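thought: fold this chain, then report.
action: predict
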Amino acid sequence: MNTFYMELKNALECSEGDIWAETVLTGDRAGEKQLLVNPEKDRTGSNERVFRERIRRTPKLIICGAGHVSMPIIRMGKMLGFIVTVIEDRPKFSDNARAAGADQVFCLPFQEGLADIPGDSDSWFVIVTRGHRYDTECLESILQKRYAYVGMMGSRRRTAIVKDQLEEKGISREVLDSVHTPIGLKIGAETPEEIAVSVMAEIIQVKNARSEEGGGKAGGYSDEMLSCILGTESDRENIGVQKKVLATIISRKGSAPRSVGTKMLILEDGTTVDTIGGGCVESEIIQKALLMMRTDMPDFQICTVDMTADQAEDEGMVCGGVVEVMLERVTV
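observation:
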């Protein structure tokens, strides 16, 4: 029995740290997978080619404060695929956060609201409260948690006061200096919407930079994909007994449509979960996956899709690209 996907599901639900997966690509062990939680180094002790990726959870954006700047941050966070939680102690402002589309709003004092948020390596904290006293409370609480990012709005003087106060309480200056203050990329933002753009742009910059850390790329399994793999997706008839092939982009050159780590699940009836970019690349991979399920082809293979200049032009790209896609029969 292949326990990898159940172990992955449990790790995503229970672990606060980074989760990595390794798949052996060549040699007698090709197709073997292992899960690593908070690895200090690459544990695959061989000369075989290995695809290593950090498994992303669905990112969580936690916003402390629901003032005028928070509203566009909420909306942009939702557009970018974050689960958005807002903490605000004023009922009227909490209602505004709900109206802006936040998934969850805690109308509580900041310390109480943050106490209900455990934090993990895919939690992104944004502090935009109405005063440095609240900033201090929020930052002190957040720095005791696991997090991917902490940013705090305010002038250099205001943020310096907050950091000095927390240093006096015993929080190291190194940790305090890792906080993004003043929050956001320096784009000369003035309006709430422009500030929100600068904040989310900085978060995107940090998030994508993490893809290169630890010697691997960042990939992920959507909730729908993982449920489908494990055979628990209730709204697809007989999905649990269908054969499945998982396609993962493991390298790319040129104008390939999606990044390394992007995944798509193909079912034997031809339906798919998620996408690796559409167009001729995706169509070719679907056909190869269906052949794997309907013939005696190997359960694991690596395919190279080379988009010619003509194909690239049809896809609206400036130049052609080449992608390597790992195809693996999924068993649980």
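thought: worth noting. The longest strand covers residues 244-254.
final: tokens above.
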